[in-house]
Specification:
By secondary structure, this protein is of the alpha/beta class. 48% of the residues lie in helices and 15% in strands. The protein contains 10 helices and 7 strands. Strand 2, helix 2 and strand 3 form a beta-alpha-beta unit. One of its GO terms (molecular function) is transferase activity. Pfam families: Glycos_transf_2.
């Protein structure tokens, strides 16, 4: 649990949530107040075009940051973190999907970990999304070298210092949570998952099917950034095996070694050397 010297900055990014924002803010404030901790609530209104801004102007127990136009989930969270005064950051969505009653379950282990994440239990997950989510989770876990139960849960608490360390990596849109998750695992920070229910959202989701490929690109980019040797070694091995296979075929069938076989082997060596150099550079920067 947070101690008396800690302060929690509770961030809620909002975009067109006038149907649920009043209820969400009231419940969050009452829950945090009951925990007897030092906290502030920061709402980042990301260019809402409904009555969200007017509703927020009437709430006196939160700090409101109004973006003049929509800049994205990640960019809004970065603005909230930059304006926060706490040494711990907690985020939650305003759409009614996360259990506000379980805020204490996320905060309680925080003192012993660098980040605590709500592991969403999907009772009624959309059938079409299950394979995509399973693939992303397995890919991220394999590349990070650790089991990742939930890659992009939007209910979590983390040290502000950890968030600032990877500031330059956060994208403006939906991948803030995925980025900080992979960054923490890749850099051996202590992460704990706590099971939480996950409800149907109020309103429409901003996630599109095309974002699946964006998430894959993000995962690959981050793993190349943090663990290039693990990412590039299989690629080098693939070129090496292809080159050796072509070499054997050329020698057995044609009696000579072709140029393509040598090029494939050369590519394998170059990729592996590049991976080693990148790994050394990353280690020296830490």
């Amino acid at each position: 649990m947070l101690n008396q010297n800690d302060k929690l900055s509770f961030l809620i990014p909002v975009h067109n949530e006038d149907k649920v924002i009043s209820k969400t803010l009231r419940e969050c404030y009452e829950k945090l107040k009951s925990l007897n901790i030092n906290f502030e609530i920061i709402v980042i209104n990301d260019g809402s075009t409904d009555t969200t801004k007017e509703i927020l102007s009437q709430v006196d127990y939160v700090k409101v940051l109004n973006n003049p136009y929509n800049i994205g989930y990640g960019a809004s969270l970065k603005r909230g973190i930059a304006s926060s005064s706490g040494n711990w950051i907690m985020i939650i969505d305003a759409d009614g999907t996360y259990p506000i009653s379980d805020i204490d379950k996320i905060i309680k282990p925080a003192g012993d970990y660098d980040m605590v994440v709500g592991n969403r239990q999907h009772d009624k997950d959309h059938f079409g999304r299950k394979p995509a989510k399973w693939f992303l989770k397995k890919l991220a876990s394999f590349l990070a070298g650790k089991k990742i139960p939930d890659l992009n849960s939007g209910m979590r608490i983390f040290k502000k210092s950890v968030a600032l360390e990877f500031w330059h990596l956060y994208p403006s849109r939906f991948s803030f949570t995925s980025t900080i998750t992979l960054a923490c695992f890749a850099n051996d920070y202590f992460v704990k998952y706590v099971d939480i229910p996950y409800y149907s959202r109020v309103g429409r989701s901003g996630i599109k099917p095309r974002n699946f490929f964006d998430f894959i690109a993000l995962i690959l980019k981050l793993v190349v950034y943090f663990k290039p040797l693990k990412m590039l070694s299989p690629l080098a091995l693939l070129f090496l095996l292809a080159g050796l296979a072509k070499l054997v075929k050329d020698f057995v069938v044609n009696g000579y070694i072709g140029t393509l076989a040598l090029l494939l082997i050369l590519f394998a060596v170059q990729i592996f050397i590049m991976a080693i150099i990148s790994e050394v550079i990353i280690k020296r920067q830490k």
